[in-house]
Amino acid sequence: MKFFQVSPEIHGFNTFDEFLEEFEVSSKDVILTNRVIFEPLQEKSKIDCPVIYSEDYGTSEPTDEMVQAMMDKIDTYDYDRLIAVGGGAVLDTAKLLVLERTGSIDFLYENPQENVKKAKTLICVPTTAGTGSEVTNVAVMIRTKMDLKMGIQTQDMFCDYAVLIPELLDTVGYELFTHTTVDALIHSVEAYISKNATPFTDLLAEHAIELILEGYMDIRDNGKDVRFERNNEYLLASTYAGLSFGTAGCGTVHACSFAFGGKYDVPHGEACYQFFIETLRFFQRNNPDGNISKLNNYLSSIFDCEDGLGALDDLLDAVAPLEKMSAYGAVEADIKPFAKATYENQQRLLKNNEYPVDEKDLEEIFRLRL
Ligand SMILES: [Fe+2]
User: From the CA of 88, how far away is ligand 1's center (Å)?
Assistant: First the structure.
């Protein structure tokens, strides 16, 4: 049994300037980022390397066509390292830009273990506490011909350096903050109940869950602005969660998010949140003695109550109220196709479930969220 997988070196700095100095960022580097994140940094810091702005290639979540256009652009530079400064979409895109150009993007998906080879050094600097992409070996994009979001996962998809800078979280608005940190919470919870969970992944998942829920309780009791006092904790939690699910894997919640998020253009964290509690309730009904009981016990110890899952549901409602899928436009006719697409295309995630979930089970979860 694989206990734990580690790859990037993890660094932390108080400010972006400290990072620029320590990593000796120069004109031999290229930065991939978004204007809204990078322009304030440029005003304060001296940065003289080429910058690629992801939104110049499209504003949706990354597609294979956007990634190909960015590959064509970055190939015009003579550079050694790519520095990705952004949320999960920017970090995932960067993982693809540094690959050897062995063929089309479809070719990478055909046999990732053989066809994916890293050619440049990659430094990932997350600006949201969410995906944990800086420490995982997966990148997700929309395959336009198939109209589907799919991940590529191989050893070569790890970045070389993950750099944590809490001040970068200051620019994140409240809604994005909740959806990204809920994503990190879901990573830790799905890793914790995964059939691949190990003592190492549990240690990291528990700490991530505790840090995020303590932060949420602080917001519930003291208002939205207190979140800024815990930037460092949220950033650490999302990285711990990334390390945990990097080995244990995510499961049903993430699997369900892709069909819904893809069709109704719902960002990743928000789409995952949609299925979070319903999936946990499903496991509680169908496999009550499995890892879900370990989770309920752990949540009960944090909330100091018997029904840990119920307390989690109440806390999330207070901090980030959620509308059902129908509020995004989903209808009954979506349910069967969503369940079918999830079952057929997300086995990469569903195989991590301790309790096997079939197409009918997925239908049940989707229908309960309509
Ligand atoms: Fe996620």
Answer: 9
Contacts of 227 (CB under 8 A, 6+ apart): 174, 177, 215, 218, 219, 234
Cβ–Cβ under 8 Å, residues 87 and 33: no
Q: 258 alpha carbon to ligand 1 midpoint, in Å? A: 10
Going from the Cα of 79 to the center of ligand 1, the distance in angstroms, rounded, reads: 30
- pLDDT tens digits, residue range 332-358? 999 999 999 999 989 989 999 999 999
Compute, in angstroms, the gap from residue 27 CA to the centroid of ligand 1: 33
Count of domains observed in the chain? 2
Domain limits for position 153: 9-168
Q: What's the 14 CA to ligand 1 centre distance in angstroms?
A: 26
Distance 223 CA to ligand 1 centre (A): 26
What predicted TM-score, i.e. pTM, was given to this entire model? 0.94
Residues of the chain by 3-state class (helix, strand, coil), percent to 5: 60, 10, 30
Domain annotation covers residue 2: no
Give the pair of three-digit tokens for residue 184. Answer: 């990190």
Task: Give 77 Cα–ligand 1 centroid separation in angstroms.
Answer: 32
Q: Are residues 35 and 149 in the same domain?
A: yes
pLDDT band at 146 (very low <50, low <70, confident <90, very high): confident
